[in-house]
Amino acid sequence: MKMILGHITFQKSEKKWMFLFFICLWVMAPKALAQNISSSIDSTSIPIGAQITYKIQVEADTTNLVVFPEGQTFMPLENVEASAVDTTINKHRFKLIREYALTQFDSGTYTIPRQRILINDATFYTDSLLVEVRNVAVDTTTQKLYPVKPSIKVDKPFSIPVWVWWLLATLIIIGALVFFLWKRNKKKTAAQQKVPPFEKAMLSLKTLDESHQLENGQIKSYYSSLTEAIRRYIDEKIDDRALESTTNELIARLNSLTEKEKLRIGKEDIRKLEEVLTRADLIKFAGASMDRITAKSDRQTVEENIFAFKEAIPEPTEEELLQDQAYREAVAKRRKRKTIIISIVAGIGILVVSAIGFIGLKGWDYVQDTILGSPSKELLRGEWIQSEYGNPPVSLITPKVLVRNMQQDTLPQAQNGAMIESFSYGSILGEYHINLSLVNFPEKKEFDLDKSIDAVYTDFENKGAINILMKNEEFTTVNGAEGIKIFGSFKIKNPLLENRSIQKSYTILNFGYNGAFEQLMLVYKKDNAAAEEITNRIINSIELKITEE
């Protein structure tokens, strides 16, 4: 039996084999894609400080999105420079090449770790490569050796930090604001002291006449200005409560002063004043109306009362003058205190606004690094130390020397009789925590690394961690020791703020070989770029001195 497909004729058995061929091709497609990623270096041996060119080549469809490695992912070698991606197109396929300049300033044999390539949602890895960094030979036969010269202290060049300029600008703004308020208050006080109360009252009446409020029918406004002129004069010369008192209260105090002979004015003048103030109250508060003749008469009465009050005020005694001076000084102090409080509040407001603007302009990381200081960045920029710990030894580079723990409560549960050593730096609640644990079992049995994953979870729970997220993958050190990498995040209660939690990230490396178990734990604040860089540098430096038995 035959089948016809286009112009091609297949036997039934041939059709079956073709179907299997296409199935195999579909299954092998991802592998074929993976084989189109390659990496190479231009030299496997370089002198100290020299650079090698690390090249990654990817072939992919033109519709694929390819993401190359970025940053210091080549540790222990340092990425000096990364070139732009070189792209060529050949029959609907991309050929992408990117080169990296790598270097190292310590002699030894190093492994460039596998690099991650993203193609759409798929992840691929390059092969790891070995590089030898040689010491530079020194020819002592032709070049004379000299003793090491003592270090010379060099003064740092003078530079003004950025925050000093911001502080100076803020102080200038505060100073200008204080000067403005002081100047305005001084002018106001001087103006009040310059015009005596009597002349001020007469000037108010003259201004009222020139305003033509009465001719324009503004009776309410007219009586308000009229009564304010007489009340303000009485307030400044006779009774300092005249402005806020009702008509009855003011007339009562004027009669009382007259009876005590502190005011030599006739009862008739006080009665006329009471009539004017009462009519003004009816007009202002009850909406009453008034004819122009009566209004002009009231204006004349007020002027006569001001003259009468001027003549009625007795000359102040020496004791009264002293009391008046003390009162004026108290008023001046209150005004000065008010000005200072306003200036301080305004200054604080300017500082807050400036700080918010500076953080918005430069970012919180910049402010923390330049002004507040970042403990993680100080660790990263400090002098790193390479040390060996335990027996058999573990070599790694850390920003601080790890101190031997006297208590072993931080270690995983070990068998009875096991020899336990622990070295650490910092606290799990602090900025950065390092803990190196080494356990030697007496029977030299191989340790099950899969069980160590559950032990990590239990250990974090015992320390008070919650919301523990955990991932794991295989890990290989630069000298070929294989282990498990456990990483993730958790929350732990803040000891200072009980209602707040601290977000932490962690990376743990577990190794088991020759009857020994070794664990490196790194815990740090989540989303801290400097802490993550410290972690990568420590992990890429770890070496296990494996001895075959």
What are the SSEs and their pairings?
Layout: E1 2-5, E2 8-11, H1 12-27, H2 29-34, E3 37-41, E4 45-47, E5 51-61, E6 66-67, E7 78-82, E8 86-89, E9 93-103, E10 108-112, E11 116-119, E12 122-125, E13 129-134, H3 162-194, H4 197-211, H5 219-237, H6 247-259, H7 267-286, H8 292-312, H9 318-362, H10 364-372, H11 375-381, E14 385-389, E15 394-398, E16 403-404, E17 419-425, E18 432-440, H12 449-462, E19 465-476, E20 482-493, E21 501-513, E22 516-525, H13 529-541, E23 543-544
Parallel strand pairs: 4-13
Antiparallel strand pairs: 1-2, 3-5, 5-9, 6-11, 7-9, 8-9, 10-13, 11-12, 14-15, 15-23, 16-17, 17-18, 18-22, 19-20, 20-21, 21-22
Transmembrane segments: 163-182, 340-361
Keywords: Membrane, Transmembrane, Transmembrane helix
Organism: Mesonia ostreae
Give structural notes:
This is DUF4381 domain-containing protein. Keywords: Membrane, Transmembrane, Transmembrane helix. The protein has 549 residues and is of the alpha+beta class. A seven-stranded antiparallel beta sheet has the order 16-17-18-22-21-20-19, sandwiched between helices. Strands 3, 5, 7, 8 and 9 form a five-stranded antiparallel beta sheet that branches. Strands 4-13-10 form a three-stranded mixed beta sheet, with no helix packed on it. Strand 1 and strand 2 form a beta hairpin. Helix 3 runs antiparallel to helix 9, helix 4 packs antiparallel against helix 8 and helix 6 packs antiparallel against helix 7. The protein starts with a strand and ends in a 5-residue tail after the last strand.
